[in-house]
Inverse folding.
């Protein structure tokens, strides 16, 4: 069942059931979503993004070894009481913030059968309303308004909406790629006509990669239920969206919002470190000192790579 384009987007789904194998051994006992980016776990940035877009009902799709996610978004009465006794209001505010972002719910995926299968676990919670899906590997800078722009695009045209970003040709094989056509009167909103999962550069229909933000019409659930396992033997959300894009009879088709702002990929070790540095230099408390140290350090032999024997064995 599709929803009206005028229906508000009030719920978000955050798939967080992955094993985080690219971050082993760090993610052996700690969910990758809980790895810190400066002084907050990566997953908190994602929930804060949903809250900025007016969404205070969040469902996380989790799996085994993810209990710390629930603990983080719950109240910690003993810790709060200790901070109150110390009159440490600033730390108390930080601790309480994660629990005050909204109503965060949790459901287990059970089996790791793909992103499409994870989204399908949200059907009972979401119901017949449009909803957002935010992948925890992609952090969108807090000064950007990508999710709000996607919700607004759905409000004008209906259907489902994916976030698109231009990437170099030699990187398109790492993403789903969209074929698009322009829409009269729109600048960075396009109509998606087809999608290809991780194509070779020579086979890619464009340089527009699908990144981890979606605003989905509830009709996606019926499509997912009929979607056979695809790449990797998993139920792919891209396959269901492709079916919607090619048949606009139910759900209004698929739009793309081209994002040109700052995005941090925390699913890759190198990009994770880049995200930490970029956010640290802007931190309101330590940013100035860290930026000053970083500028001095890169001029040293160690920072420039001139020092011998500086690589650590892992």
């Amino acid at each position: 069942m599709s929803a009206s384009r005028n229906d508000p987007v009030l719920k978000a789904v955050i798939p967080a059931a992955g094993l985080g194998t690219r971050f082993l051994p760090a993610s052996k006992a700690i969910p990758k979503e809980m790895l810190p980016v400066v002084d907050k776990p990566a997953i908190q940035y994602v929930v804060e993004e949903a809250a900025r877009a007016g969404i205070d009902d969040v469902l996380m799709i989790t799996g085994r070894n993810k209990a710390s996610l629930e603990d983080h978004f719950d109240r910690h009465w003993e810790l709060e009481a200790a901070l109150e006794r110390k009159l440490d209001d600033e730390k108390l505010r930080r601790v309480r913030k994660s629990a005050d972002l909204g109503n965060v719910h949790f459901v287990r995926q059970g089996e790791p059968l793909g992103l499409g299968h994870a989204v399908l676990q949200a059907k009972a919670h979401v119901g017949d309303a449009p909803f957002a899906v935010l992948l925890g590997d992609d952090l969108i800078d807090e000064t950007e308004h990508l999710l709000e722009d996607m919700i607004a695009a759905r409000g004008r045209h209906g259907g489902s909406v994916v976030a698109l970003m231009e990437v170099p040709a030699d990187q398109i094989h790492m993403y789903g790629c969209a074929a698009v056509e322009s829409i009269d009167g729109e600048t960075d909103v396009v109509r998606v006509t087809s999608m290809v999962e991780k194509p070779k550069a020579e086979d890619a229909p464009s340089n527009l990669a699908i990144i981890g933000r979606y605003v989905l019409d509830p009709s996606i659930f019926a499509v997912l239920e009929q979607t056979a396992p695809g790449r990797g033997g998993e139920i792919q959300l891209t396959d269901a969206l492709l079916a919607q894009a090619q048949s606009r009879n139910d759900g209004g088709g698929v739009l793309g919002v081209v994002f040109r702002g700052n995005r941090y990929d925390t699913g890759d070790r190198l990009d994770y470190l880049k995200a930490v540095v970029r956010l640290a230099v802007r931190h309101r408390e330590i940013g100035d000192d860290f930026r000053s140290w970083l500028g001095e350090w890169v001029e040293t032999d160690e920072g420039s790579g001139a020092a011998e024997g500086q690589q650590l064995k892992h």
